[in-house]
């Protein structure tokens, strides 16, 4: 499976490279420098690994965060960008997509507990009339 995944990704990378060369009419190793590679890596990690939505969310984050950091913190936008990234990794170690999944699980657990509490309130508190409590407990086992 790993070899198949590598082959498929190489196929798509080749197609993307040929389209890039066709559009720009110029290709060199200088076209893809270290800041671009680091931006792609940061987008992948910030978005969340192991999901399809994670890299897309990370790409949006990496594209828009420097713009908003420049607007909000005109003094040192690069420092504020780094601080925001570090804080995000502390708050959401699985990335944005992983944090979303955790939020959904928390909400489902919370609503399930609330439903169980509501059902418990609807059950009668004492034993039904005519049936002793001892026999009722024995019947549950």
Topology record:
Elements: H1 2-24, H2 34-47, H3 53-72, H4 77-91, H5 95-122, H6 133-140
Helix pairs in contact: 2-3, 3-4, 3-5
Structure description:
By secondary structure, this protein is mainly alpha-helical. The chain is built from six helices and no strands. The chain is flat and about 80 Å long. The mean pLDDT is 82.
Tell me the distance between the termini.
49 Å
Quote the beta fraction.
under 5%
How would you classify the quaternary structure?
single chain
**What gyration radius follows from the Cα positions, in whole Å?**
27 Å
Total number of helical segments? 6
Largest sheet: none
Shape: flat
Unreliable stretches covering 5 or more consecutive residues: none
Kindly name the structural category: mainly alpha
Total count of strands:
0
Order of helices and strands: HHHHHH
Percent helix: over 70%
Q: Give the overall average pLDDT.
A: 82
Outline of the structure:
The chain is mostly helical and 141 residues long. The chain has helices at residues 2-24, 34-47, 53-72, 77-91, 95-122, 133-140.
What keyword list fits this structure?
mainly alpha, single chain, 141 residues
């Amino acid at each position: 499976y790993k070899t198949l995944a590598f082959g498929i990704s190489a196929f798509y990378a080749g197609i993307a490279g040929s389209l890039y060369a066709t559009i720009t009419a110029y290709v060199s190793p200088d076209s893809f420098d270290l800041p671009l590679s680091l931006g792609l890596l940061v987008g992948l990690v910030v978005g969340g690994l192991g999901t399809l939505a994670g890299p897309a969310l990370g790409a949006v984050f990496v594209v828009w965060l420097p713009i908003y950091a420049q607007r909000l913190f005109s003094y040192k936008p690069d420092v504020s960008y780094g601080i925001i990234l570090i804080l995000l990794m502390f708050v959401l170690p699985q990335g944005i997509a992983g944090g979303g999944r955790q939020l959904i699980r928390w909400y489902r657990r919370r609503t399930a507990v609330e439903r169980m509490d509501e059902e418990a309130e609807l059950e009668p508190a004492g034993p039904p009339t005519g049936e002793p409590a001892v026999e009722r407990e024995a019947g549950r086992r």
